Amino acid sequence: PMGIGGIFQPLLEEAGIEGWQDAAFAGALGGILWFLLYILIKFIIDSYARRRVDASLRAAELLTTTEQSRMLAEIQGEWKVCATQPARRPKWERASVSGEHYTLSSPQLTERRLFCFSRTPDGRLFVDDKGTECVEWAPSDGRVRLKPRSENEMIWKQEGMVEIEMMQTSTMPDEIGTLVQLKGDGELTDQQYSDLMMSKAKFRA
């Protein structure tokens, strides 16, 4: 058969690898080669993205002391880290902001970072020197959306915001389904889910 094995026939024969004509062998070899190709393409794309972020950081200018102080004051406190998409969960679960530092944590690890707000000429806002871009800044509404350079995008939500959002959608016909979805997405703890379900049950009663 042709396929992957046939494409690489000269190399296989030169290397003295026998049995490449066998369909099973060719299939396994094809899978390995496609996987390596995927890794190579992903590496190239990630490298390009990192270079773009590095270039943007070099072009960014620090915000004024007044702006930095205002933004730091707005974001102080405890935050719950949520996913922007169920299939792309962030590696962190919580964020704690104290002074100029913020601490990201999960059951497995903790990392402390320094806020360093800067903005590029085209308006992109970065919150640190690691290339974490701010996609949405709305701490007064209990919501900040961040896009780290090499991690999944994440949304910071202040404690209680999940319950508030649920109350705002309480007129939806599928309230229970919404609760279930929020819990499945990791935006509700077991206790929050239980309390909200109880409140819905009392309301209906």
The computed structural class is alpha+beta
Q: What general form does the structure show?
A: flat
Strand content: 15-25%
Helical content class: 40-55%
Query: What order do the SSEs take from the amino end to the carboxyl end, as H and E?
Result: HHHEHEEEEEEEEEHHH
Strand order of the largest sheet: 1-6-7-8-9-10-2-3-4-5
Radius of gyration (Å): 24 Å
Distance between the termini: 69 Å
Per DSSP E runs of 2 or more residues, the count of β-strands stands at 10
Segments where pLDDT lies below 50 for 5+ residues?
Answer: 1-5, 166-173
Short description:
The chain is an alpha+beta fold. It has helices at 3-7, 9-14, 23-59, 65-75, 161-168, 175-184, 190-204; strands spanning 61-62, 77-83, 94-98, 101-105, 110-114, 118-119, 125-126, 133-138, 143-147, 154-158. It has seven helices and ten strands.
